[in-house]
Amino acid sequence: MRYSWLSVLREALRDQSGWQPAWRDAAPRDSYDVVIVGGGGHGLATAYYLAREHGITNVAVLEKGHIGSGNAGRNTTIIRSNYLLPGNEPFYEWSMKLWEGLEQNLNYNAMVSQRGVVNLYHSDAQRDAFARRGNSMILHGADAELLDAEGVRRMAPYLDFANARFPIKGGLLQRRGGTARHDAVVWGYARAADQRGVDIVQNCEVTGLRIEDGRITGLDTSRGFIRAGKVGIAVAGNSSRLADMAGMRLPIESHVLQAFVSEAVKPLIDTVITFGAGHFYISQSDKGGLVFGGDIDGYNSYAQRGSVPAMADVMESAMALMPMLGRLRLLRQWGGIMDMSMDGSPIIDLTPVENLYLNAGWCYGGFKATPASGWCFAWTIAKNQPHALNAALRLDRFRDGATIDEKGAGPQPNLH
Ligand SMILES: Cc1cc2nc3c(=O)[nH]c(=O)nc-3n(C[C@H](O)[C@H](O)[C@H](O)COP(=O)(O)OP(=O)(O)OC[C@H]3O[C@@H](n4cnc5c(N)ncnc54)[C@H](O)[C@@H]3O)c2cc1C
Fold it and tell me: Within 10 A of 272 (CB to CB), how many other CB atoms are there?
């Protein structure tokens, strides 16, 4: 069923009785050409682009819970392509371009909102670093503007410019950045993949990977054994667990990242703002809640829940930036499991096991990467080699020293 203003009108006239399920809840078959593990945004996008770009439709996406129950449904929905390094920026800018055409391609309202992303700077040194990043973005075809304090004040007069410790000196603005509705991205990709014949199998946990003579042959699951020609792992925070089933130890740690939403208020923040003197980012949802987050909890964990210390830490930054937030009530907080790589950049690559592919290491920023990640992973699986856009996102870069240390911070997951 195609969605259009005509279909909305037709259903309005017949009491909404004609809508059909957006995708089939498929039962697993015995065998597939390609199996993708993980029904988050990345897994579903991969299946969609395998079918759309490469004509590979005998594909299953296996999800242990329901689709979107992982980080795809837990993030703060920020999309942007404001990276510095050549290994990253072209990839994220390609993602931005795919976001810009996503709703038309999927025939689904993903609520992509290019409301702008402002990274605030609070010192001269930080301004210089942001100027360098902005220049790199422009050289790679992205948009970037360096604002002074007055420029930021015009966009966001409610910020505490005179904060004694962290005065706001300006910001790096990417106008094409913004937000997208995370659930809708999952549902849109699921529907579009299903329409091309992909089986989306929910409540199907992968419990083992069968490897014979160095080559993957299938998967043990909670719903039986499934044979597979190729297998792609896209399980975000569970990447180390899946890789362990194939005898691989990844340069990845799993950490909890929390997010928060306030009670709904009238329109206040019409852009995305990040604090440069602490780890804090904030936007306002279309329902009116202020959506914000900060740093990872700082210890390895597979818990998907909130905690008081992280809340206190995030609220400190919130109050330093926007003291009026102290008058708001917090509605909810939650956590997701982050796959923190040791250089802060992701991995989309082949693995030492033949026909087994890895998509992991998304750290704080995998939601914005969803379209390009799926696009590049599909290419890598279909052609058995990386695309130029993900050529630097190699797994063996940690062995060879070709790391993409975007923050120049070394192997410290808490800083990425
Ligand atoms: C609080 C929070 C805020 C964030 N904010 C942003 C943001 O503003 N912008 C941004 O770009 N990124 C953000 N991120 C990061 C982003 O959400 C992730 O990097 C991205 O969603 C990861 O890819 P995914 O969607 O495929 O992961 P997921 O949705 O986690 O998908 C992986 C799936 O694999 C499934 N799975 C795991 N193990 C198995 C198994 N054995 N068998 C079958 N299935 C399995 C899981 O159930 C899960 O559904 C945030 C993350 C969190 C937690």
Answer: 25
